[in-house]
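[[Local backbone shapes]]
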Amino acid sequence: MWLYVLWMHLSLVQEQAIAARMALIVGAKEFDRLFPGVQFSEVDGDILFCFAMNEELAAEMEDKYALHISIVASDILRTDIGIVMVLPRVLQ
């Protein structure tokens, strides 16, 4: 059974769990290139907010891996994640 969370700030353990699973999915080389310093920040409704190092990495991460991130995050957080918003860190 999945819960519907209105707003939740992710713990460090939850952030690291999502990052670790993504590293397994994309591989070490791609993870080191695309996910340096990524922060999985918070859930608002069914939206997961992530922050990447810059706008270019944020756009590529969202285009290539938003679906993967939503599936992984839904499993770890035990809530439905329908949208993954990857933003550049300057907007944090």
Q: What stands out?
A: The chain has one domain: 7-91. The mean pLDDT is 92.
